[in-house]
Amino acid sequence: MRRIYIFDTTLRDGEQSPGVGFTTKEKLEIAKQLEKLKVDVIEAGFPASSPGDLEAVKEISEKIKNPVICALARALPKDIEKAGEALKNARKGRIHIFIATSPIHMKYKLKKTPEEVLRLAVEGVKLAKKFNCEIEFSPEDASRTEFSFLYKVLEAVIEEGAEIINIPDTVGYSVPFEFADLFKKIRENVSNIEKAILSCHCHNDLGMATANSLCAVKSGVSQVECTINGIGERAGNASLEEVVMALKTREDFFGFSVNIKTTEIYRTSRLVSRLTGLPVQPNKAIVGKNAFRHAAGIHQDGILKKTTTYEIINPSSVGVEQGELVLGKLSGSHAFKERLKKLGFRLKEEELENAFKSFKRLADKKKEVFDEDLIFIVEEEALRVPQIFSLDYLHTISGNQVISTATVRIKKGNKVFQEAACGDGPVDAVYKAIDRITGVKVTLVDYSLHAVTEGKDALGEVMVKIKKEKEIVSGRGVSTDIIEASAKAYIDAVNRLIYREKQNK
Ligand code: KIV
Ligand code: ZN
């Protein structure tokens, strides 16, 4: 069976989702999880875009050894040099060079003639050969490029040494049969195409990214570029979990294999959702909360008689397990550690101790602690950015006949600061008091709240996005008290903002 390579670009194109920005620590955490998922290639970032991205690609190259680590670069010497530098310590590195080839992009965006674009593409590949890396080339906006020019550029870059040819449907304009046909044409008209691996990169503007990718596979493509939860620029990219599970579930039709460890899919999806602050829609295929729920009586009856009546995928094959009651108030640290091990966490001693304390605090408030709760606690601990500010005390008064007021105490190093404020509701009052303490001027641009598990005592997870000038940063807070979760999320976002500013200096 021909193998289809899975190229994950969550850390690069996924990071281009509006309002998303990872810290290096978060990128590394996701990269580790992608390694567990067994993706073939991780596109770790765009080193020339910021010092933070350069550092993140370097770090991932040093620490993640199984997948190929890829860095994006425009067809410009300074970008390619930066990508090469970032990948220096990768076991296997790949420089991904792109330049737009469609008439509209060349004329209005690049303000370059086709001859200049061709020259830059070829010179870019030539320069990239200096580094000990694989070379991938993408003609940006390929699906709106004139065929003859596309063939000419591809032939020239392959001749120069590009080993992977990626065809992006940059603006999600193509439709499945047309996209498949484009690959047929490329195979027929680019004389040296046999020397390269063909790849596709689809955006979801018309909701066809997965369908286009699968049609491309049927038409000779061996690498699919995709992201976890389908995140990415505008409407996003082809979703990894959809592409992989379509290839697996319909192996009878496609006849291709993938190396993905599918039982890691759900956990990866949740991690990415948490760190991007982008919730997964309930009806999202494969990883949505409702993906394996059956509501209609006839369906429930069918499922009880034989699961395959209404289930084409076994939920446990993508890591979705039924909520299991695991620990309670009286559970000790040994049981806690063992459970975490079973859930696949390997924490440092200090992280483990802190997570255990959080678990005890939670168990005091909540009778039943589920796996889901544990995962939230642990991830909150392990993924924490430096705690410049931390919540010490919170008191709010609110009601339909009173003006909401909040008193907040926050620690910064050894010092404790206290402020009070009135607001339009308790959350607003808390946020105003926090603003007074931190002195960081930000605007709240997004706020969402959801229950992690079921029941009145469920943990509430708050995700916020704050904006300072052009920078948007997300934060997350978890508690059985939603006002406390809101305060934690806001402080987390401020800490991330400060951390990001330091990283990018
Ligand atoms: O969508 C696109 O064209 C891209 C390229 C950089 C591959 O993301
Ligand atoms: Zn893209």
Relevant terms:
binds 3-methyl-2-oxobutanoic acid, binds zinc ion, 8-stranded parallel barrel, 3 domains, Double Stranded RNA Binding Domain, alpha/beta, 3-stranded antiparallel β-sheet, Recoverin, domain 1, 505 residues, TIM Barrel
What does this structure look like?
It contains 17 helices and 18 strands. Helix 6 (147-160) links the parallel strand 6 and strand 7. The strands form 5 sheets. Strands 2-3-4-5-6-7-8-9 form an 8-stranded parallel beta barrel, surrounded by 8 helices. Strands 13-14-15 form a 3-stranded antiparallel sheet. Strands 16-17-18 form a 3-stranded antiparallel sheet. The model has no long low-confidence stretch (mean pLDDT 92). It has helices at 24-37, 51-63, 77-86, 103-110, 114-128, 147-160, 176-189, 209-218, 240-249, 251-254, 265-276, 297-305, 333-342, 349-365, 371-382, 426-438, 482-503, and strands at residues 2-3, 5-8, 41-45, 68-74, 93-100, 133-140, 164-169, 197-202, 223-226, 256-257, 325-327, 369-370, 390-397, 404-412, 415-423, 443-451, 460-468, 471-479. Helix 1 (24-37) runs antiparallel to helix 11. It has 3 domains: 2-276, Aldolase class I (TIM Barrel, Alpha-Beta Barrel); 293-382, Recoverin, domain 1, CATH 1.10.238; 390-504, Double Stranded RNA Binding Domain (2-Layer Sandwich), CATH 3.30.160. The structure holds 3-methyl-2-oxobutanoic acid and zinc ion. Zinc ion binds next to loops.
